[in-house]
């Protein structure tokens, strides 16, 4: 039984070592690719768009009958949804 336990612990340590080595290689490769991309494609400063006042849509352009129909439809939907 002692030999099996020792072999199991050895395999566990070996497996964990390979995973740790792979993750270290992955970190190095990712860092290298990041530096390489930043060298060939540096960040370009984006100019902030000028603050233009956004005009709100005028309420007078909405037909009052249409607004009343929409209000009635929403009211009807909300009442039937709860039933």
From TrEMBL:
The gene is oadG. It catalyses: oxaloacetate + 2 Na(+)(in) + H(+) = pyruvate + 2 Na(+)(out) + CO2. Its cofactor is Na(+). Keywords: Cell membrane, Ion transport, Membrane, Sodium, Sodium transport, Translocase, Transmembrane, Transmembrane helix, Transport. Heterotrimer of an alpha, a beta and a gamma subunit. NCBIfam families: oadG_fam. It is found in: Cell membrane. It is an enzyme of class 7 (translocase). The chain crosses the membrane at residues 12-32. Belongs to the OadG family. The keyword Nuclease does not apply. Its EC number is 7.2.4.2. Pfam families: OAD_gamma. This is Probable oxaloacetate decarboxylase gamma chain.
């Amino acid at each position: 039984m002692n030999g099996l336990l020792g072999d199991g612990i050895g395999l566990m340590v070996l497996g964990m070592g390979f995973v740790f080595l792979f993750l270290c290689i992955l970190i190095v490769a990712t860092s290298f690719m990041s530096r390489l991309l930043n060298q060939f494609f540096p960040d370009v400063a984006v100019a902030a768009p000028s603050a233009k006042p956004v005009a709100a849509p005028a309420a007078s352009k909405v037909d009052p009958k249409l607004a009343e129909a929409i209000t009635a439809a929403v009211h009807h939907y909300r009442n039937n949804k709860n039933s």
